[in-house]
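Hi C.,

You asked whether I'd gotten around to modeling the 258-residue construct. I have! Everything is below, sequence then structure, no commentary in between.
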Amino acid sequence: MKIATYNVNGINSRLPVLLRWLAETAPDIVCLQELKAPQEKFPEQALQDAGYTALWQGQKSWNGVAILSRDPAIQEVCRSLPGDAEDLQSRYLEARVQGLRVGCLYLPNGNPAPGPKFDYKLSWLERFQAYAADLLKTQVPVILAGDYNIIPTEADVYKPERWLDDALFRPESRTAFQTLLAQGWTDALRKLYPQQRLYTYWDYFRNAYSRNAGLRIDHLLLSPPLVSRLIAGGVDHPVRGWEKTSDHAPAWIELADV
């Protein structure tokens, strides 16, 4: 089973890229972030024609998350992160699909930091940590995949000294990510590639992609029952070089069948 996460940076403007990638790689489950489309503008029919059933939580101009499945038996669990009924940003969606619980998330960027946006990021992270801990207690196979907007370590960023004051790399953000790992979650790509530099995002400016001046901020975290099933993974970095593409590339893993 192949599971991927991909920040599309505007699903309708990037739809040809998304459909091409789906056709070429055929993942079984896909978590999408930054749809930048209201609920009624999601391209459901185009994705159905490509062989995918979708759940989505849209938001006009910003945010938005979706889960795609080649198996139409996908059951929604929730469409927001618990803990703050007044938080209306579309950043979390969870479903039961193909024997898994799949949480798709688009964690707040948090810049500029310090400031209100960084405070919101830390508050969201606290809620996410609490919910993630509760998910582990269920002892069911869970994947939490998405754009975490966190650079976990210096190995995950080109020239880390340039990012010290950025919300993605500030100690509070990195500590929060380590707290998730300490709970019992496994960073799937780091499990497979302990030392290798892997990037999932390259800025549009300063020829970042051609220089491979990137960041790893898109992650797939596995609950303990799934770790032994992890057999492969990677980043489809050539997608970042396609015409009119997102500034992210898809990250993916493969799980052995039970």
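If it helps when you're writing up: The domain at 2-255 is CATH 3.60.10.10 (Deoxyribonuclease I; Chain A).

Thanks,
B.
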